[in-house]
Automatic annotation (TrEMBL), chain A:
GO terms for molecular function: electron transfer activity; FMN binding; heme binding; metal ion binding; oxidoreductase activity, acting on diphenols and related substances as donors. This is Protein-methionine-sulfoxide reductase heme-binding subunit MsrQ. It is a multi-pass membrane protein. Residues 56-165 form the Ferric oxidoreductase domain. InterPro entries: Fe3_Rdtase_TM_dom (IPR013130), MsrQ-like (IPR022837).
TrEMBL record, chain B:
Residues 81-235 form the Oxidoreductase molybdopterin-binding domain. It comes from the Bacteria. It catalyses: L-methionyl-[protein] + a quinone + H2O = L-methionyl-(R)-S-oxide-[protein] + a quinol; L-methionyl-[protein] + a quinone + H2O = L-methionyl-(S)-S-oxide-[protein] + a quinol. Predicted to be exported by the Tat system. The position of the signal peptide cleavage has not been experimentally proven. Belongs to the MsrP family. This is Protein-methionine-sulfoxide reductase catalytic subunit MsrP. Keywords: Metal-binding, Molybdenum, Oxidoreductase, Signal. Mo-molybdopterin binds at N60, Y63, E64, C118, T153, R206, S217, I218, K219. Its cofactor is Mo-molybdopterin. It comes from Loktanella salsilacus.
């Protein structure tokens, strides 16, 4: 029995619902710390909370993107956790957006200006928009209604959402810190792993295949 | 010639030590009640009350120690500031390597409570101690063809994690036009809240130019040069579109990536409201330095 089979067997008994509680609990815990100036929040909690939620959102988007390549390349199957990971990513982006709107920028007029005028905010906002239909359709009823093929096609929107999220991060930092590039690297790597390599090879080196035949 | 500028905030505005140390705990206590923090908004901070020592010394930009706001407070302790030598060179009558004591000898230390506006749209009020840069320049003797003053921050790679990871080019450099440097508002700070400058605040000697964005107020200075040409400035080098050489606080000129029209006073908690940013950070007395300049172009 391979390691992957053992892991999958063990995971069969782990339910997905605790992820929602963990995710929501952590979000509340962060907010509570920010409210009281604890931990990393110190003297300027608004920006820290905004960044904290944004970073967790990006991590969750990336985690969601690992599920398929992990199964393809190692056989480990986390698919039953993917909906929870994706929905949590959406709710963290939503919380991130609400901190931005309500606590940071504070007026609707300024929010609109920022979204239009600042490319890095525009990019984040597009990522947020891309996630809305995904969150709305992350339930069994929607899969049945839309049909699995079209549903799967729709949910490819996670790719641009993750790319936009990582680009947004690169764009907003000053100087050249490493983290945003690591996140972007992870997103790109996870997308590249999805490409159909047999097909690509066939397209790139057709002559070789001919001489082989 | 010290005392050429009078605080609109007086030493009486400096909260007694016991109070500024406690205010944080007080805020934390009430914030637990949520609703109160909400109603309190900016904790009713009036414009003149200095921020607490904790606020001033735990929320800093000092990239030599890392890019996080708390990195300087966590890492700056390693910086060696004694002995400290400042090189004065260029178009001066008395160039040389000065010990800190020699450099500051005979200069009058006074308290200045200044607003501090970061380019990142947050602000504080800081009770500095220090002397006017003009007095120091008089002491070293500025020659006639000097037009600018250039400054340089210390580089101690072994003590500075940010320098080792090369997030930006070091040493950090900044500059002022000579008339800006000579303005009575421009000071060299050596102390904060009546004690020597904490390392994360730029010990042992830093520039303070209250009508410019904070990054102009270069920290931990080891070199002062009088020059004829406009000197290099670190952020201006990195991105001239985003950070001008002058970088005067100006609510009408946005940073390309965020608005400069408003700012958030540090210390208001999670529900702090924004306040309007003032031209020259409220220091209108410097306006005449820029007569005839289009400050939306020369920002
Ligand atoms: C897919 C959606 C999004 C993702 C993945 C995302 C992710 C992030 C990340 C990783 C950061 C930096 C965190 C850090 O510094 O540790 C960040 C910061 C930020 N994001 Fe987003 N974000 C998204 C959408 C948005 C939206 C919709 C807005 C506003 C309309 C927004 C506004 C901001 C702002 C203002 C900052 C902080 C900038 C600063 O500190 O100066 N983001 N975001």
């Amino acid at each position: 029995m391979s390691a992957a089979t053992t892991i999958n067997g063990g995971l069969r008994r782990v339910p997905a619902w605790p992820l929602y509680i963990l995710g929501a609990g952590y979000m509340v815990w962060e907010f509570w710390q920010a409210l009281n100036g604890l931990g990393p929040y110190g003297v300027e909690p608004i920006n820290v909370l905004e960044r904290e939620y944004g970073e967790i959102a990006l991590i969750l988007l990336i985690a969601g993107l690992t599920v398929t390549p992990l199964r393809t390349w190692t056989g480990v199957n986390l698919i039953k956790f993917r909906r929870a990971i994706g929905l949590l990513a959406f709710f963290y982006v939503l919380a991130h957006f609400l901190v931005f709107t309500v606590l940071d920028v504070q007026t609707i007029g300024r929010v609109v200006t920022e979204v239009i005028k600042r490319p890095y905010v525009t990019v984040g906002f597009l990522g947020f928009l891309a996630l809305i239909p995904l969150a709305v359709t992350s339930n069994n009823w929607s899969i049945r209604r839309i049909g699995p093929v079209r549903w799967r096609r729709l949910h490819k929107l996670t790719y641009p959402a993750a790319l936009l999220g990582a680009l947004h991060y690169i764009w907003l930092v000053k100087g050249w810190p490493l983290e945003p590039f690591l996140y972007m690297g992870a997103v790109i790597a996870l997308l590249v792993l999805r490409l159909n390599w047999t097909k690509i090879r066939a397209i790139l080196i057709p002559s070789r295949q001919q001489t082989n035949s | 010639m010290a005392h050429r500028w009078k605080n609109d905030m007086t030493p009486a505005d400096v909260t007694p030590k016991s109070l500024f140390l406690n205010r944080r705990q007080l805020i934390a206590g009430t914030a637990g009640l949520g609703a109160i923090a909400m109603a309190g908004g900016a904790q009713a901070q009036d414009a003149m009350t200095p921020n607490t020592l904790e606020e001033i010394t735990t929320y800093n930009n000092f990239y030599e120690f890392g890019t996080g706001k708390s990195d300087p407070a966590n890492n700056a302790e390693a910086m060696v500031i004694d002995p400290w030598t400042v090189t004065v060179d260029g178009l001066v009558d008395n160039p040389g390597d000065y010990s800190l004591a020699d450099l500051t000898e005979g200069l009058t230390i006074e308290e200045r409570i200044y607003r501090f506006r970061c380019v990142e749209a947050w602000s504080m009020v800081v009770p500095w101690q220090g002397f006017e840069l003009a007095d120091l320049l008089a002491k070293v003797g500025v020659q006639g063809d000097a037009k600018y003053v250039a400054f340089e921050t210390v580089v101690q790679p072994e003590n500075m994690p940010g320098v080792r990871s090369r997030v930006i080019d070091f040493p950090y450099v900044e500059g002022l036009r000579l008339d800006e440097a000579m303005h009575p508002l421009t000071m060299m700070a050596t102390g904060l809240y009546g004690a020597p400058l904490p390392k994360q605040s730029g010990a042992p000697l830093r520039l303070v130019v209250p009508w410019k964005y904070g990054f102009k107020s270069i920290k931990s200075i080891v070199k002062i040069s009088l020059v004829a040409e406009q000197p290099e400035a670190t952020w201006n080098n990195i991105n001239p579109r985003e950070y001008g050489f002058y970088s005067n606080v100006n609510p009408g000129v946005d940073h390309p990536r965020w608005s400069q029209a408003t700012e958030r006073r540090i210390g208001g908690g999670l529900f702090a409201s924004r306040q309007d940013t003032l031209m020259f950070n409220g220091y209108d007395e410097v306006a005449s330095l820029y007569d005839g300049m289009d400050l939306s172009k020369e920002f």
